[in-house]
């Protein structure tokens, strides 16, 4: 067994399907593609072989892996301490930059992931006069339940 096969066998004990995200299951090789490290436009497998990262972490590493400016920004952020569930000056600065680059994006609203991201933009719609009409209300309910359940309302 290769180290990737051993790692996959172990991962299957802890993760459904042996992966933390279904997109990482790779049917072409019969297991996930395990990466040990990344540098610039390259990723390296567990055996140290180099590959050009055409996936770019699905957009998360557009500047490449291990970019010096990203590392410096992360180091500055860690020096401030890991701050969760509080507002910071960095939130306001990020929102200001987004609003400058994309004026129609203001006001800025951030969420985590999944259903909350899908439903948050519609929350103001619940209170609109249009949503109080029966046909609109029904459409709203179906959409809401689609985001939160597998069974639509009757």
Provide an overview of this structure.
The chain starts with a helix and ends in a 6-residue tail after the last helix. The model has no long low-confidence stretch (mean pLDDT 78). It is built from 6 helices and 3 strands; from the N terminus they run αβββααααα. The chain folds into 2 domains: 3-79, Aspartate Aminotransferase, domain 1 (Alpha-Beta Complex), CATH 3.90.1150; 112-154, no CATH class. It has a 3-stranded antiparallel β-sheet, with no helix packed on it. A hairpin with a 2-residue loop joins strand 1 (35-39) and strand 2. Helices cover 38% and strands 8% of the residues. The protein has helices at residues 3-11, 68-79, 89-101, 115-119, 123-126, 134-148, and strands at residues 35-39, 42-45, 50-52. The radius of gyration is 22 Å and the shape is extended. The chain has 154 residues and is mainly α.
Instruction: Indicate the CATH topology of the largest domain.
Output: Aspartate Aminotransferase, domain 1
Along the chain, the helix and strand elements come as HEEEHHHHH
Number of helices: 6
Q: CATH first level of the largest domain: which class?
A: Alpha Beta
Q: Beta-strand level of the residues, as a percent range?
A: 5-15%
**Would you report the number of β strands?**
3
Q: What's the end-to-end separation, in Å?
A: 53 Å
Helix fraction?
25-40%
Strand order of the largest sheet: 1-2-3
Q: How confident is the prediction overall: mean pLDDT?
A: 78
The dominant shape is extended
Low-pLDDT segments, ≥5 res:
none
Number of domains: 2
């Amino acid at each position: 067994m290769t180290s990737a096969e051993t790692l996959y066998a172990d991962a299957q004990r802890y993760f459904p399907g042996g992966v933390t995200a279904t997109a990482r299951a790779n049917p072409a090789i019969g297991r996930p593609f395990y990466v040990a490290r990344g540098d610039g436009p390259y990723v390296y497998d567990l055996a140290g072989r180099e590959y050009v990262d055409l996936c770019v972490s699905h957009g998360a590493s557009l500047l490449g892996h291990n970019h010096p400016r990203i590392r410096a920004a992360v180091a500055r952020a860690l020096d401030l301490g890991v701050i969760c569930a509080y507002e910071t000056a960095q939130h306001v600065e990020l929102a200001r930059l987004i609003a400058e680059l994309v004026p129609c994006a203001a006001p800025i609203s951030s969420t985590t992931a999944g259903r909350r991201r899908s439903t948050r933009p519609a929350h103001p719609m619940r209170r609109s006069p249009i949503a109080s009409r029966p046909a609109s209300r029904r459409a709203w309910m179906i959409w809401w339940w689609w985001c939160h359940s597998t069974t639509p309302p009757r």
